[in-house]
Design a protein that fits this description.
2 copies of one chain form a homodimer.
Chain A lengths: L2 H13 L18 H11 L7 E9 L4 H12 L9 E11 L2 E11 L6 E7 L10 H12 L2 H8 L8 E6 L13 E9 L15 E6 L5 E6 L29 H6 L12 E3 L7 E3 L2 E4 L2 E8 L3 E9 L2 E15 L11 E2 L1 H5 L17 E10 L5 E23 L4 E18 L2 E9 L5 E9 L3 E3 L9 E5 L2 E4 L1 E11 L7 E9 L17 E8 L3 E3 L8 E10 L6 E7 L13 H5 L7 E5 L22 H5 L10 E11 L9 E13 L15 H4 L2 E2 L6 H12 L11
Antiparallel strand pairs in A: 1-2, 2-3, 3-4, 5-6, 6-7, 7-8, 10-11, 11-12, 12-13, 13-14, 14-15, 14-24, 16-17, 17-18, 18-19, 19-20, 20-32, 21-23, 22-23, 24-31, 25-26, 25-28, 27-30, 28-29, 29-32, 30-31
Helix pairs in contact in A: 1-2
Chain lengths: 716, 716
């Protein structure tokens, strides 16, 4: 046992944490285990040379497709599989007084023998590594103890009971010149000793900027405090009517203490699964209703779904949320810098909530843990970062024979793989949904607390909405990039754009093939070179990911899955702006690129303070290479332009957005046709207090009870 | 007791049916009760003059708004309310050998005393009354016994085991000239004695047309049987490879008999509500989670929701699905006539399924019955045409304090008012959803069986998809018109269109108010004259129904509800086609008209065989009258262009579409902020077999159990 391994096991036993390591199961896409993390760290300890090693990311390098695909096919065929060698990648810094040198190591992790450094590359000049929780905390401490900052605060004549709270945020590039790696702070007031008080209801119009290297104060930015114009606190000698702020609490305990009662008329609603859930987990491979796939998880993307097969047929090689950008629409400094890349800058894995039984889902729930690390490289465990459960999704399909009055009805059961991330003030809920009709959906719920700034009471802004006295919630966008790596009955696919188009018609001289003007046809356009396309709901535009080598025997058309793109508004920032340049996935709804190993992050490898040369999606599209009957990747950009409502504060009710991947002539009939009938015997629903419909309803109830038949036989 | 009343009570006791009549409760919008129907019929019996009276519709005339609003306000205020006189409207025909004369009667139904004819108006010349089940059945019988039809079938050399099945359909206008009222039949083959066999998998390329007046055969239309061109069976001497048809069954019993097993790995999933549902019903007035409204139901629209208030504040006066059109895209005769208006031609009330306990929903369910009538005017009862239940809709809102790691999380409970209609081969599921954040959504699920026609095996069509051997499912559209009669804090409202628009930017000379090119603003345009507008997702276009007389004290903006229009493809039929003229609501997403009593049906009063002069939405818009700070109605057209997949056969998995009405600065904070925390103690979820995560998961479980707290305190 190496030094680090013994230290690790000591730590593990001391903390009483469990490793997510899964000895009985092996899959080459499983996240690094605690001991693999330890072995990786172990391999580079000696490179410290007395400097302080600061670990940013330690994660699995997924095997190249050329190596992985044969393995997956053998595995799917139930053959004995060999163990593929594992490789870890470490992003680590050597911190010194002036800053830090950042390097990327690749470490081989042979099953036996010690780990080895394969390669070591410095982070390219001009690129900035992302911040991390350790840096954020250190920077916050440095800020709150900084005399210049304290003096500036002292000038503000704050209420005696006000405490300053500072949230580390993301610094956005505002020039093409390299800027020192910086952490801006959104500063607020707290009027309570309870750390869960909603300080976002009392913003301070000051943005201090701290060096992410030295943690020194770089400068203080003062924010505009009128609805229009650039006047700041400095123009008002620091005067602001702080007393205008009112509590706007969300925490149920705080609300209760303040006498704000919760509604009491919502009765218990429980999901009971007497025979358990319908899925099985072997390690991180899940099997449910003809579906089988691997559930990976990493620091940056969070959930990664791989090798997705339905009834043994390959559908998708890899699905993940690749990146996202959140640009704000208030053009006034320093607000113009507010453009977060929550995945690239911080990481969906790093910020994943530890989900708790029965709080975030109902029914029988499985949780997946994640072996992680702290900045010094010691292993940590994130519990329940992924939850897995089934959900009833209403009627799956129904037909009633009007002659016999006999309905055939089924319920739609779905499988949900969910993770929830907290990015300072805001939350995203990512849920992959699998259904019995062989469809896959990604549901994104946007919730959490708006990023707020101060505005003089009585003022309104053209760039946002006042959501609490003195509190402006700025208009902004959320643009997600979903990476879809298809394998529709094989890895050589073609994306075909399909529009529904009216046939030509001239009332005076009706064409013989459209005499009455009602005809329409479907216009197809194959995307043969890497490029982009946009949603066009007015044309009923869909994108079919086809396998040009496989024909559906019933329809005579190529087997396919279709993507109905969400036609959300795209990037509002001007095409010549840096904000636009940075969002390499923000200008179109659909991108198609040729597959290349490790091209995973649409916004580029280093989005933090990026200025548009991040070598991301835009450059891959520019290759103009063949994507016809080829191994390709589809990228879908969608999201929401969020102009806040007062109703979005203090915590925003979930705004729900979904995209769908549906089989289209992939099967020879409805794949859900064999779902058993929905019956009262199976569902055991209850009749609501019959009230005024006593006779009729009892009748329904008795019929339902009597030998499991109701009058229509739907419960046969 | 009048003659008809005694007959009625005899019938009632004989059939052992229950009336939906609700003595203890009274509401002026309650549907006609069985005895009101009887009294209405009673009032016109004497007009028969020996002819056969044929009743098409008998329904409540809703009181004029001027009379109803004061009543509703008193009722909402809990004051003692007077009983408003009731009026029924009857559409009835006097059938004779040559056809029938159709009249519309208004009948007064005073609380005491006998019913009286208020008015009698003939159906305008050139307008056609809708078909009804009685006519459909009579026509079907006439067709199957018709010698000409039988002779034509005999020529086809059908397999000996083949039986002919004929589904009555809707006849579409193909000229502006009046055409006799007709019923076309879609004819199929059945190869089984079981009436639930799927005959839609064996279409016959013949469309016989029967007179809806005399039930005589008008003619036989032969259908094209190639993918392109007009060649019919006549061109092939009636030869068609009938043996190409294969069974494509959906009925679970038939499938079981045929050895087609249903999947067996889906385990029970039950919704338990140990303390019952959270709603209360008084008659047809429901109260749930600060919501209160009346649930009406009628022959044509089905569910009608009225007087919708949240926390005592008025939001909407009336919500309903007003009409829909389903035009088909195959331009070849006789297919070009396929354009159904399922509400106007048939009726969502008439075709509503009788829902059965536990087959169509889970949990504790309430059902509403509907007093209806048969063609001879005798009362009937439709049981369970509306079901009411709660559903868990996932996380309502969540925020985790990254400092304390304490999450505040709530679940979203929704109330669902649902009806399901069967229109011959096809089904629609309409569900109004009310949430705890004061939002209202309409969910439409399209399911059922595609309307199929014959196509020679091996052929493919530019106008549809082959979904089973020899079976073509034609491309078509479903366009719904939802009628939204708002009362946003009062009846004088204004609709404002709002786009999110980038600010001007010039990189060379950045404007001082948008130096970095990231700024955007919201462009508002009030709709002041009756007119239309279209969805524009690329501009993030929303429509706010505002009350210009009420200002939100927090934001300083007018209180409003916003409608995010579904940007679905609009009518594909050419603007100069009859099909387009008939769909008066098919050309735009949004229409705004001034309120007028009884302007309820977007497609006009008589859509059957209408040819574009139906006096519907188009003519109301043309009035060009004031809708600014006025009593107005918003009409939203949305739907789906449905190019069938093989996966949509034999029964289509639900295609789900939703529209949302959300408060926008209507409240002074999130209306859902007082929803109690989601806790394991309340939800009682179960942990999935821990598998490889034993220690970690047990830990989660124990923490959750221990005094109802999990490690994050979310279950506090």
């Amino acid at each position: 046992m190496t030094f680090i391994e013994s230290t690790l096991s000591a730590v593990v036993s001391k903390l009483g944490i469990s490793s997510a390591e899964e000895p009985p199961y092996y899959h080459p896409l499983d996240p690094l285990t605690a001991s693999e993390i330890a072995r990786s760290v172990d391999a580079i300890r000696h490179t410290a040379n007395g400097a302080r090693l600061w670990f940013k990311s330690i994660q699995l390098v997924e095997p190249p497709k050329a190596i992985l695909v044969p393995w997956l096919d053998e595995y799917a065929a139930g053959e004995a599989v060999s163990r593929l060698d594992r490789t870890a990648e470490i992003l680590v810094g050597r911190r010194h007084s002036k800053g830090a040198d950042w390097l990327v190591y690749q470490i081989s992790l042979p099953e036996t023998g010690s780990s080895q450094i394969i390669s070591a590359e410095p982070v390219p000049a001009g690129q900035h590594v992302p911040p991390d929780m350790g840096e954020m905390m250190a920077a916050e401490e440095a800020l709150l103890n900084n005399p210049t900052f304290k003096a500036a605060i002292a000038k503000l004549d704050l209420p005696s009971n006000a405490k300053v709270v500072a949230d580390g945020w993301i610094y956005g590039a505002d020039t093409l010149d390299a800027t020192p790696r910086s952490i801006p702070f959104m500063v607020y007031l707290s009027f309570s000793d309870n750390p869960d008080t909603c300080h976002y209801a009392a913003p301070l119009p000051i943005v201090p900027v701290i060096s992410a290297d030295t943690f020194e104060l770089q400068r203080l930015d003062y924010c505009p405090i009128y609805g229009k114009g650039d006047k700041t606190l400095l123009d008002l000698d620091g005067r602001f009517p702080w007393e205008a702020y009112v509590p706007n609490e969300y925490d149920q305990n705080i609300r209760a203490t303040a006498g704000l009662s919760s509604r009491e008329d919502i009765k218990p609603y429980r999901v009971l699964q007497p025979e358990g859930a319908s899925f099985t987990l072997e390690g991180r491979v899940i099997r449910w209703q003809k579906w089988a796939f691997h559930i990976g998880f990493n620091y940056r993307e969070g959930i990664v779904l791989s090798d997705i097969r339905y009834d043994g047929r390959s559908t998708f090689y890899r699905l993940s949320v690749s990146d996202m950008t959140v640009p704000y629409g208030d053009p006034r400094a320093p607000f113009h810098r507010k453009q977060a890349f929550d995945l690239g800058d911080i990481g969906a894995g790093l910020t994943a909530n530890e989900l708790a039984l029965g709080c975030d889902c109902l029914g029988e729930i499985a949780y997946l843990n994640f072996d992680h690390f702290s900045q010094d490289g010691s292993p940590t465990l994130q519990r329940g970062v992924v939850c897995i459960h089934e959900q009833d999704d209403g009627i799956g399909w129904k037909h009633t024979n009007f002659r016999t009055n006999r309905p055939s009805v089924t319920r739609s059961r779905i499988l949900i793989i969910q993770t929830i991330i907290t990015v300072a003030n805001y939350e995203y809920i990512f849920a992959w949904r699998f259904d019995q009709a062989a469809g896959i959906s990604l549901e994104v719920r946007a919730t959490g607390i708006l990023s707020t700034v101060a505005i003089l009471p009585g003022e309104t802004s053209p760039h946002g909405n006042v959501v609490s006295p003195g509190v402006l919630a700025t208009n902004h966008q959320h643009l997600f990039s979903v990476r879809i790596d298809p394998a529709i009955d094989g890895h050589n696919n073609t994306v075909v754009q399909e529009d529904s188009v009216a046939m030509p018609f001239d009332k005076a001289n009706p064409p013989s093939d459209n005499k009455w003007g009602v005809g329409y046809t479907v216009e197809q356009k194959a995307i043969t070179k890497s490029g982009w396309a946009d949603a066009a709901p007015e044309k009923n535009r869909v994108f079919k990911i086809t396998n040009p080598n496989k024909v559906n025997p019933v329809s005579g058309k190529n087997v396919a899955y279709k993507l109905v793109p969400a036609p959300s508004q795209l990037m509002l920032a001007h095409p010549e702006s840096i904000a636009y340049a940075r969002a390499e996935f923000g200008e179109h709804h659909i991108y198609v690129t040729s597959y290349k190993d490790r091209e995973l992050y649409a916004g580029g490898l280093y989005t933090n303070q990026s200025n548009g040369d991040a070598n991301g999606l835009r450059s891959w599209v520019a290759r103009d290479d063949n994507v016809d009957n080829a191994d390709l990747v589809v990228w879908h950009t969608f999201g929401l332009t969020h102009n806040p409502r007062v109703e979005d504060f203090p915590v925003m009710p979930c705004e729900i957005h979904m995209i769908h991947l549906k089989p289209n002539d992939f099967f020879t009939a409805s794949p859900a046709i064999d779902v058993p009938a929905s019956t009262q015997a199976f569902n055991q629903s209850q009749l609501h207090n019959p009230g005024q419909h006593l006779q009729g309803d009892n009748d329904i109830e008795e019929k339902a009870k009597a030998n499991g038949l109701n009058k229509q036989g739907c419960c046969a």
